[in-house]
Specification:
It contains 15 helices and twelve strands. Helix 8 runs antiparallel to helix 9. It has a five-stranded parallel sheet, sandwiched between helices. Helix 4 links the parallel strand 3 and strand 4. It is 46% helix and 16% strand. The chain is of the alpha/beta class and 371 residues long. Bound molecules: 6-O-phosphono-alpha-D-glucopyranose.
């Protein structure tokens, strides 16, 4: 059994550590650096079709929904196309506005989640072009799709999704560059610059994994907490949501992920000296960084404990936080890939220290094929 896990104690730990390889596999053969373009095997959306799109609707559940929220930032920023990120389980039970000028993108590790599949069929029936971003070739969603982007993460066994999430993020970034080029919102040099940033990501993930001893120390300190708050702004908001979800899934600690600006509308009432607040505060983008420092000060003023995820060279936030975890600096749209890794490790170590069954958390299933 240990051999199957490649010497790791749990599949989840193995899968966290596989991420440099998994992300490299998602990128392989797809980045055309000299042309400033992206190649997807079998791409069948004409330039005319892409230019006529008026909206993208992302349909997903759980962790895949979080990657959709990050994807919205990427696509809106690079391709200037409005993106709505829908909870698949809600979308199918209302009367959604969809027409032939829309692109529906189902994001799913398994390609079999019942709610996502049903929502995807609904969007298709209403005339949308259907694209799947999926980890399993031949799954129901890839069969339903007009076109699929495979994430190539390899089999994911741990119920809590890790490498599927980061590979979805880079697949979405590739898609955003491709759509940006086709719609003329990204010049060749701009696309080349984005792709150059992307080539650095596998090495950055390798580097960020070195934070594991620091994360383990933080995990020991807070393993008995009853609640956690995760805060992030802009593209870090979905990272906060994902950090909170990971923790509750496997450690069974109550955790909430919030956009930093919303803290004053509720969660601030919960903050006391027993409340650890994980603040995702890379310097990119600049405005969000300035604002998140404001959040840190608000938490500290109420006695809360701040665990800050910061850029390697950030000495300022280091003086404000109780603990820091340093990560390599990435551009704003790719920082979520890097910033998620310490949060996966935090959830993993807290759950392991509490003696939980990390790979098979209670009440959860890897793939939910019922409504
Ligand atoms: C379940 C899993 C989650 C996953 C979600 C969506 O709840 O436990 O880890 O994010 O389903 O799964 P999908 O396969 O559609 O990405």
């Amino acid at each position: 059994m240990m051999a199957e896990k490649g010497g790791h104690k749990h599949f989840m730990h193995k899968e966290i550590w596989e991420q440099p390889r998994a992300v490299a596999d998602t990128l392989r053969g797809r980045m055309l650096l000299s042309e400033g373009d992206v190649h997807f095997e079998g791409w069948n959306l004409s330039a005319e079709k892409v230019r006529s799109l008026t909206k993208i609707t992302i349909l997903a559940c759980g962790t895949s929904w979080h990657s959709g929220v990050a994807g919205k930032h990427m696509i809106e920023s690079l391709a200037r196309l409005p993106v709505e990120v829908e909870l698949a389980s809600e979308f199918r039970y209302r009367d959604p506005i969809v027409d032939g000028t829309h692109l529906a993108i189902a994001i799913s590790q398994s390609g079999e989640t019942a709610d996502t599949l049903a929502a995807f069929k609904e969007a298709k029936a209403r005339g949308a072009t259907a694209m799947a971003i999926c980890n399993v070739i031949g799954s129901a969603m890839t069969r339903e799709a007009d076109f699929s982007v495979l994430t190539n993460a390899g089999p994911e066994i741990g119920v809590a999704s890790t490498k599927a999430f980061t590979t979805q993020l880079v697949a979405l970034f590739l898609l955003a560059v491709k759509l940006g080029r086709m719609r003329g919102t990204l010049s060749v040099p701009a696309a080349q610059e984005h792709l150059t940033q992307l080539t650095k990501v596998p090495k950055m993930i390798e580097d960020v994994l070195k934070c594991e001893p620091a994360v383990t120390r933080v995990s020991r300190e807070y393993m008995d907490s009853q609640d956690f708050l995760f805060l992030g702004r802009g593209p870090m908001h979905p990272v906060a949501l994902e950090g909170a979800l990971k923790l509750k899934e496997i450690s069974y600690i109550h955790a909430e992920g919030y956009a930093g600006g919303e803290m004053k509308h509720g969660p601030i009432a919960l903050i006391d000296e027993k409340m650890p607040v994980v603040v995702i505060a890379p310097k990119q983008p600049h405005v969000a960084y300035e604002k998140i420092i404001g959040n840190i000060e608000e938490v500290r003023a109420r006695g809360g404990k701040v665990i800050a995820i910061i850029d390697e060279d950030d000495e300022h936030v280091a003086t404000l936080a109780d603990q820091v975890i340093r990560i390599p600096a990435a551009c704003a749209l790719l920082a979520p890939v890097v910033a998620t890794i310490p949060l996966q490790l935090l959830a993993y170590h807290v759950a392991d220290l509490r003696g939980n069954d990390v790979d098979q958390p209670r009440n959860l299933a890897k793939s939910v094929t019922v409504e």
